[in-house]
């Protein structure tokens, strides 16, 4: 079973690497990183390079598509070549998925019209401009439509575990969870917008502004 994880300039690394770490633990799953061109792309802050091992043209029928997010999605929502590739790939996938602002690409491709969907909390209005209905849930699935979206960054791990359950089985998902020792016990409880104080939200926005 082939899982294609899309990469692009100014991606958010954990959006892609979180699902990768879960999915690549399963022997029956092969993960390929795809992009507009083979070779390295840099993360949203430019500090980390990830490698596309194949171009979009070379991967046309993956069983699963994972489209991560990052600042770079803002340019891709107007890239007709990427959007056409997503639409064509979705015709054949078992599941088409996104993490964080990767859902903007699914929305721009017309796959989320009228559906609830997750994204990063800063991109809710943009997501809804593509006809989706934002929900703050970490993972939102529409199995008849073969679409699953995840919220910001770390939620991609949760989504990938659910994918393993759907594709292979619950015990396989539990085994992958154990292999990566995914047992979150954070020292703070500010990991969702509804839980964060006004001061925390303001500081986060300031940090975003310094990185843009």
| CATH level 4 superfamily | Class I glutamine amidotransferase (GATase) domain
The rounded distance between the terminal residues' Cα atoms is 37 Å
Count of separate DSSP helical elements: 8
List the domain count as a whole number.
Answer: 1
Going across the biggest sheet, name each strand in turn: 5-2-1-6-7-11-10
Please give the CATH class.
Alpha Beta
Fraction of residues in H or I helices: 25-40%
CATH topology: Rossmann fold
Overall number of strands: 11
CATH architecture: 3-Layer(aba) Sandwich
Element-by-element helix/strand order:
EHEEEEEHHEHEHEEEHHH
Report the C-alpha radius of gyration, rounded. Answer: 16 Å
C-alpha geometry? globular
Question: Can you summarize the main beta sheet?
Answer: 7 strands, mixed
- Taking all residues together, what is the mean pLDDT? 97
Strand content: 15-25%
Structural class: alpha/beta
State the low-pLDDT regions, or none.
Answer: none
Please characterize this protein's 3D structure.
The chain has 212 residues and is α/β, with parallel strands linked by helices. It has one domain: Rossmann fold, CATH 3.40.50. Helix content is 36%, strand content 20%. It contains eight helices and eleven strands. The protein has helices spanning 13-23, 73-76, 80-90, 102-108, 124-129, 155-167, 170-179, 198-211; strands at 2-6, 30-35, 39-42, 49-52, 54-55, 64-67, 95-99, 116-117, 133-134, 139-142, 147-150. A seven-stranded mixed beta sheet has the order 5-2-1-6-7-11-10, with helices on both faces. It has a two-stranded antiparallel sheet with strand order 3-4. The longest helix has 14 residues, at 198-211. The model has no long low-confidence stretch (mean pLDDT 97). This is DJ-1/PfpI domain-containing protein. Residues 2-165 form the DJ-1/PfpI domain. One of its GO terms (biological process) is regulation of DNA-templated transcription. Pfam families: DJ-1_PfpI.
